[in-house]
Amino acid sequence: MCVVLVHVLMIMCVIFIIGICDSSAVSGYIEAVRELACELLDLVAEGLRVPDTSVFSRLIRDVDSDSILRLNHYPPMPILCKDNDTSSSYNTNRVGFGEHSDPQILTLLRSNDVGGLQISLNDSVWFPVSPDPSAFCVNVGDVLQAMTNGRFLSVRHRALTNSCKSRMSMAYFAAPPLSTKITALPQMLSAVRPSLYRPFTWGDYKKAAYSLRLGDTRLDLFMKRGEELA
Ligand SMILES: O=C(O)CCC(=O)C(=O)O
């Protein structure tokens, strides 16, 4: 079941879509975007040579799927410059949504034409993602990383505010039912690549995620260490 969530995070302000939009338009959007997520996940399974290509999408089509739609609004935040000082940290755009990876399976993110989204491929370098209102940005989530035993990696990202314009984004987070046990698919395991994570349910994972800070690497909590890897 999909729900619309409201999050209030730092300077980010979120509008509640149900109150201002036709709810059938929202349901229609959710249905369409869920179908797209399922098609992409079937292609991922095919690419990984997993015989049951609906192994991921089945979880999202499940009536108890915990998928959600979130709308984000980042009001413009004028850049603060000290007199005659353009080099200091005052002269950087502010973070509207702090760095994190998405915990679910897959995220389909759309935005207006105002940039701000950045991804990080290692600890320190941020790459901007060009805004394109006619395209989706697709993020791998932590659950897909666990199910593929690290073949697909969840991406760390954040969103900066713009100094003059509002950024709006809309993210569909495709998730399994709470009771789903998350383990690596057998095809992702071998003698040289045993399972990297202990099994967990999506419900366990959500609970763990809420006990940590946004930017913490939650999958680390379930990572096998030492003898567990044997
Ligand atoms: O607004 C964005 O581009 C990022 C949103 C995001 O990361 C999220 O909603 O989890």
TrEMBL record:
Domain Fe2OG dioxygenase residues, every copy: 64-176
The keyword Metal-binding appears for this protein: yes
Listed Gene3D superfamilies: B-lactam Antibiotic, Isopenicillin N Synthase, Chain
Keyword Metal-binding applies: yes
Family: Belongs to the iron/ascorbate-dependent oxidoreductase family.
Signal peptide location: 1-25
Keywords from the named record: Iron, Metal-binding, Oxidoreductase, Signal
Annotated InterPro entries: IPNS-like_FE2OG_OXY, IPNS-like_sf, Iron_ascorbate_oxido_reductase, Oxoglu/Fe-dep_dioxygenase_dom
Pfam families, A to Z: 2OG-FeII_Oxy
Name the record gives this protein: Fe2OG dioxygenase domain-containing protein
GO molecular function: metal ion binding; oxidoreductase activity
PANTHER family: 2-OXOGLUTARATE (2OG) AND FE(II)-DEPENDENT OXYGENASE SUPERFAMILY PROTEIN-RELATED
